[in-house]
Amino acid sequence: MIDYLYTLIKELCTKRDVLWQLVRQQLILRYRRTTLGYLWTLINPLLMMSVTAVVFATLFKVELKDYAVFLFAGMIPWNCFNATIGQSAVSFINNEGLIKKIYLPKIFFPLSVALAVLIDSMLSFFVLFAIILCIGGQLSWSLLFIPFAYVLLFFFSFGVALVASVATVFFRDLQYVIVIAMQAWFFLTPIMYKKNALTGSIAWLVQFNPVSTFIELFRNPLCFALLPSPSVIASAAALAIISLAFGLLVLARQEEKIVFRL
Amino acid sequence: MSNITIKDLSIKFRVYHDRSPSFKSYFASLFSKDPTLSSYTDFWAIKNLSLNIKAGDRIGIIGHNGAGKSTLLKTLCKIYSPSEGHIHVVGRLAPLLEIGAGFHPEFTGRENIYLNGSILGYSKKQLRAIEAEVIAFAEIEEFIDTPVKYYSTGMYMRLAFSLATAMHPDILILDELFAGGDIAFITKAKTRMMEMVNKANIMMMVSHDHDLIRLLCNRVIWLDHGRIVCDGETNTIVQRYLDHETPQ
User: Fold this and answer.
1) How close B138 gets to chain A, by Cα (Å)?
2) Among A234, B164, B211, B225, which one has the highest count of C-beta atoms within 10 angstroms of its own C-beta?
3) Does B3-91+206-245 match B96-200 in CATH topology?
4) Dihedral angle sign, alpha carbons of residues B152, B157, B158, B163
């Protein structure tokens, strides 16, 4: 395993130009030849969240401003997580032509997707944050924690994404299963509601949902101008490390078989 | 000095009867020893192949379809990893298995030089240095900022060829390369290929064109069903292969 990590890091360093080109390809291609171009990356989640905010603020009978800030703070990490898994899952399948014709480290395919999603997410964060400030969010030192929260979220998401991408090569049905599973996971994560709001027989699902931890990492600084509690940070860090280690382990054991199964 | 050592190399392919096994059949085959339930059969594309290649070797690989020629080259290029045995390569290896692999149709010619160039292993600095020469050799100056999906097949091939052959690697791996373009370009391309072959430390090619092999190679390996039938001086081996293939 140590040998594997050493080779991996060496390849990441020597071939970082390729990785960057693949990330660039992801970022540029999506909206090429649309009039608003890259702006769609920002407008899309914004419109979606605004609609959700209006509907659910009315439904829950809460102040729209407060609810909008609360919802935005939860949606940013969720959208990042969701897009990383969903897009990475098909990264090997979509690059079949390349994988069969030329050698590139296998990790580059899910990694380039995940990095592109991360960049998208950070850009939409800036836009949303400007809006949060306008409608009455608070500016505080605790916001300096956000970059760190992104690092933890990225490692956690990428670990899950690695497993999803490798598994999808072997079981093609998974690309559809993942979409449905992520939808269910969204509703079981306290994004639209408070963590203790869901009671009854499925409350434990919310309680043990690893993504809840990452939502809190973002929500505390953004909504309440507070640093997340040390125990939340510690469990997020632990989850990130476990997820990444497991993802790398799965990739290390299966990557040589991928080319034969595409 | 470059060299390649291949020791007891075997490559196993699984031929899946059903392209992608379902969860159901996967679990069924886990718990059952019934061979009819297994969704694949194993097939050895290369079996116990050992080979030493030293600097100066110009190797042509011959054999009929399915002999394992392309699989061998792809394994040298790390696309397949050995099922058994190992390969040791010293020197910078340039795989020209399929030129234009990694071109993105939505990207312009210039963007593809950078995208595909980095995939081929060129650094950004090297690419900036060769960009003008690649465009000039491909003769597509006026279309270089057009997405390659609007290129004609000839233009596409010319750009891919110019880029792939822009640098001189230590070890050159070729899989039936000559194609595309008009007569003038093919002549130009052949000259450039010869130059590349001459400058390479080691060259390995697969071709069904025996005249080309006679012209370029000083050593020929005849493969059949993943094994070496014979290995030696070009004319002798090509003649033996031809005699074997076309019985009087």
Assistant:
1) 22
2) B164
3) yes
4) positive
> In the predicted model, is pLDDT for residue B29 greater than 70?
no
Structural domain count, chain A:
1
Instruction: Please indicate whether, in this complex, the C-beta atoms of A17 and B124 are within 8 angstroms of each other.
Output: yes
Q: Region B109-114: what's the mean pLDDT? A: 92
Rg, Å, chain B Cα set:
21
| B96-200 maps to CATH 3.40.50.300 | yes
Nearest-5° Cα angle at A87, A164 to A4 = 50
CB of A253 within 8 Å of a chain B CB? The answer is no
pLDDT-derived band at B26, boundaries 50, 70, 90? low
* Res B34: pLDDT: 58
Q: DSSP letter at B37?
A: G
Task: Please choose, from the candidates B84, B67, B86, B66, the residue with its C-alpha nearest in 3D space to the C-alpha of residue B76.
Answer: B86
ipTM: 0.84
A101: chain B residues, CB-CB within 8 Å: 79, 97-98, 101-102
Closest CA to B75 of B199, B195, B173: B173
Span B44-65, pLDDT tens digits: 999 999 999 999 999 999 998 8
Nearest to B37 by CA among B24, B52, B53: B24
In this prediction the pTM is 0.89
Domains of chain B, by residue range, sit at 3-91+206-245, 96-200
Which class in CATH covers the domain with range B3-91+206-245? alpha beta
Confirm or reject contact between A101 and chain B (CB < 8 A): yes
